[in-house]
Amino acid sequence: MITENPKAIIAGPEAETMVRLENVSKQFGAVKALDKISFEIRRGEILGLLGPNGAGKTTAMRILAGYFPPTSGEIFIGENSLAKMPEKVKRMIGYLPEAITLYTDMSVMEILNFVAQVKAVSRKKRKQNIEETLCRCGLWDVRNRLLGQLSKGYKQRLGLAQALIGDPDVLILDEPTSGLDPEQINKIRALIHDLGREKTIVLSTHILPEVSMVCDRVVIINHGRVAASGTVEELEAGLDADHEITIVMGDRHRKNEVLALLESIRYVQRVSVLEERADRVAISIVIAHNAEVRPNINRLFAEKDIPLLELRTNRLSLEEIFLKLVVRENF
Ligand SMILES: Nc1ncnc2c1ncn2[C@@H]1O[C@H](COP(=O)(O)OP(=O)(O)OP(=O)(O)O)[C@@H](O)[C@H]1O
Ligand SMILES: [Mg+2]
Hints:
CATH superfamily of the largest domain: P-loop containing nucleotide triphosphate hydrolases
Number of helices: 12
Bound molecules: adenosine-5'-triphosphate, magnesium ion
Number of domains: 2
Strand order of the largest sheet: 6-7-8-3-9-10
Shape: elongated
Helix content: 25-40%
CATH architecture of the largest domain: 3-Layer(aba) Sandwich
Distance between the termini: 53 Å
């Protein structure tokens, strides 16, 4: 069976740029929330914005959504400048804000109707668009409740629903899974993943595994600047300048021989015994420059006829990369 992955076609390196921020800065009085931030999102891509509290994620998303203008810099959605064609661009965008506080005395249905009007969804399509969205976001049963009476998780679902109204090409989702129960988190992640087939999505999150699960690419921001960007794999590989391999050998009487041989391998910086038991020894090997030495280690054990019971690369997780970058910049 041939399974087609539309994302591979849509979001390849040659895919068109759908969202572009060029040297965007935002000043709030004395606070520089964004400092010449630039990045692009290709059509069909899901980009994760990652950063500590106060990094500038919400500010960047508000600017992208046309909520307020940048102090300097430019934003393009497709070929259109947000500053020059705000109305056209805003109709191409669905925005889930950090918190929805408006219209507390309107029902879910009324709110979605209102949003459909603002987004100029034709009268003919409106009913179907709203009903589909209610079902997709698990809101059908509460469609007649007032916003003010909804629980936090349902408000979050409504936030997502109103972003989807009008079937916009670009979705800007500020912490889309915040405040949801575990089942709903899974559902919303699956929905975002699904939407990513047709739409260009930027989402912010504090949940690092979410980035690996949902996003094609990550931009880490810190103090209003881009600290790193790339695919999760690229970030993991790029920062992994020194990495560690753990091996477990049998025949512990030959430990010293092995330690000396390992030390003689090019790029091996440090070798140390982690644990020693009756029949096995665990050894840590620190390797410089992200070099590939696993074949050398395998060969060495084969040539000397020493049992190699385990070989494991301890790469940095996204979490460690994030902490490393953020800590490096903050202290
Ligand atoms: N309307 C505003 N007026 C003044 N300062 C603001 C305003 N909005 C944001 N800031 C400041 O800009 C900086 C970036 O805030 P922002 O809300 O964009 O961060 P964030 O990355 O979304 O953080 P969080 O993870 O807590 O949501 C912070 O220092 C914040 O205090
Ligand atoms: Mg925020």
